Protein 1
Amino acid sequence: MPHIEIISASVREGRNSHRVALFFKNYLEQNQLASSNILDLKEYNFPLFEERLHLQKWPLKKALGFSEKIKEADGVIVVTPEYNGGYPASLKNAIDLLYREWHRKPIAISTVSDGVFGGTQVITSLQFSLWKIRAWVVPAMFPVPKVFDLFDENGNPSDPEDINKRAKAFINELLWCIEANKRMSN
């Protein structure tokens, strides 16, 4: 069974995108598709980026642990809110901290907003940052508009049939890329 790390990118109080991270963890495990873990950037609370992890003289233990989790993961789901048309500094900070760990790593993006566009303005800039560090960005996206209407604080969907249908297509694309990556790596 593959292992997928889920990055919950928001660090602010009252964050809503974390609801979607919780949903994906539950979805993967309940459907026995993959083991998963949430890498909550709020809990990591990394200092502002000053150098890539592998070049730091005295790296933080939590940064080394984060690096190891990304390196060992078969794939990653990034759940990010949209802030003024961009993704949060906490996510850019975590992406820039690592380099080799992202190489050819299948990464699926879920964007979240309170509005009707579901954070889709974030996708292009986030894809570009991930492409620049040679990550494999999965073509399927999972935008979540009006997150309050679609998920409760525990990640439970208000319309499970619709959300699970969308999640199935999104996760299947990530799992396909994980399998293709394993075959190409051997």
Note: The mean pLDDT is 92.
Protein 2
Amino acid sequence: MSTRDDVVTQYRLVPEDFVKHLMTTLAIVVGVVLLAAIIFGVPEKQPLTIKGYSTAHPVAFEQMALRALDGTGQIANYGPPYNHGTGNVESFLQTTAGIIHPINAAQDFILKPLKMATSVNPAIKAPLASFAHATNAQRARWEALYTKALTKGVYRNGKVITPPGHYGPLPTLLNDSLALGQSGLYSGALIRNGSVITRFDNQNYLLFLQGAPLQKDPATQTLAGGNWGIIHPAINGYPGAWWMTIPTWIYQWPFVANSTASDALALSIGFLFWLALALTPWIPGWNKLPRYLGVHRLIWKEFYRNQPVDNPPGAVELGGGTRDAS
């Protein structure tokens, strides 16, 4: 008896509205999921926001803003695809791609948001004009002196207070930036764009928090890369992204982890793994691996065990001929 005959004769065929069955099942599953979410919920870690970070770490916030202003911040000196910096250039692939998303950190992260804020607080106009009319050398002196001063800064009465010095308009500008951040309006100023297409582009909002905020926050929860953090749960007791185990494992290889082009290496190795799987049917020898492993025989062992004696295990009758199922 062939497999085809076995299927036809042993199962009763009944009419069925498959679409109705599918939609009914979908409705039941959606209902169960929504009900479970309402009853149990899922605790979520509070998101990292500009308002939250500036409120919790006012001095660190001003230090981050000053690094964006003087060009020493992570994004300010990142390199392609944002600018001509060299701080994060990993490989020729990055430089070949070029500047796809141009960012001027001083203008986009600090000065433009403050200019927008002048409509609410006109007092910001004077320090902005003073900074704009200063020479590059003068700005550099102010920034160098204020960088040192902020290491001794203290937060008092809504402002960061530093030892007296010749800092030009920087204390006023950065305290205005701090007030803008704590008000919750900074994020809107960073993503504001007149273009309809890019009106909801959150790029600047996310990149503004690069550096200390996004590096120190995960480290407190063992979510950093050295701890295989991407597969850990943000909330204890809930599963993490276990499906990211293989790419995370690649990042732990010493020659990848210690390379200046770790991202490029990890992505390239991951691509080769994918390519090997995608081309499995056409790679000589490699395409025979499933047959050699015989996993299918374990899965179908009950089927093979119940086959008639004249059809040996591993063979099925197809149209009068016998073919090896492996």
Note: The first helix runs from residue 3 to 10.
Protein 3
Amino acid sequence: MHLIAHELTGADDWPIVPATPRRDWMDATPSRFAYRCLPLTMANHAGWMVLCPASFIATWDGTEGAPHNMDIAFAPGEERHAMLISSHFGSGILTFALPWLFRTEPGIGLLARGMPNQPKPGAFALEGFVETDWSPFSFTMNWQLLEPHRPVVFEKGEPICFIQPFDPGLLSGRSPEIRSLHSDPQLFEEFEAWRKGRKAFNEDTERSARWQKHYHTGQTVEGRKVPTHLTAFKVQPFERDLPTLPPSGETEVQG
């Protein structure tokens, strides 16, 4: 799969790095038990992170519409980032004009979203799907500040956008169905074996720190291994091509 990030003005301050499966709140759970949930850790690192170029505090005054209803106080010496970090749309929306123009292969676009399973106090990351297989435009990453007059801190180096390739053909033209589980006797038998085993495990007061690992190890209750099972994604860093001259002008904010 081809995924290319073309540099626009100021891109050096906005690193793109492989996402990490780690989360501070998961580290803080007793015995780090949250990492036993493989679907969580897989979602955590199924893409790339665009990192914030500056530290600042954003405060929305609560009014709608006007783009000047948000105060963005940058750390000393980092005011230059005000061109790409602003309340461009107003209404409490904080906009990051990403200085990258992404291209993907035909039929593949990018989901741009907040970090999976990483809440941020006072702000919510808005998601978008971009047809990067043809679009010659940059796009923005937007956050909604949730409460008027509540300062929201963004730190330099924290992820502010999570990008993930997506094939819209996986949705279009599909015909989802609802069926009785009994319509698939083998699946019903395997589910019942798992359900009974999980019930007995949960009722065992002596289980202590033990935990069942059927899904984590990719095998059924009967021990049948699933050859396609994954426990991690091999997300590669972006490789730099030959140096290119920066384009003239500043990045234009696109909706």
Note: Residues 245-253 have pLDDT under 50 and may be disordered.
Protein 4
Amino acid sequence: MKVEVGLRGSPFDPWAELAARGRSARTDLGAAAVFVGTMRDRNEGEAVESMLLEHYPGMTERELERAARAALERWGASEALVLHRVGEVRPGETLVLVAVWAAHRAHAFAACRELMEAVKHRVPLWKRERTASGERWVERNTPGEVAAWETPAEPPEEA
């Protein structure tokens, strides 16, 4: 199991990050699932000028790694990369990159989705938005609802 996590204090290009790492050297991994989240310019019906992402150094990285390992283990996936912005972020900038490699697509998709939901709901990151009317804390994340056909019902069986 290979996990890489990182926090970025400045804008990053998720596709360049993936290209710099190249594909997995493992020939038994036939699937990669990638999620890239970008900051929107609107939230809760109001224009957002920027957002400040605060975190606990050390703790946030440990939680990202813990979430990645749990998703890989649950879905029988083998490798994960998670990069997340901290500090000031502007609309259009990348917030998060989650990539998962597995033997099969269903498990790569499922692990990627589970990992992204863990990042949104369990990793210690706090968002404060700046709007024309002032600053406000983001109190809840957008739910990541899943259609029944999108996620396998069960993780793979042990071989």
Note: The mean pLDDT is 89.
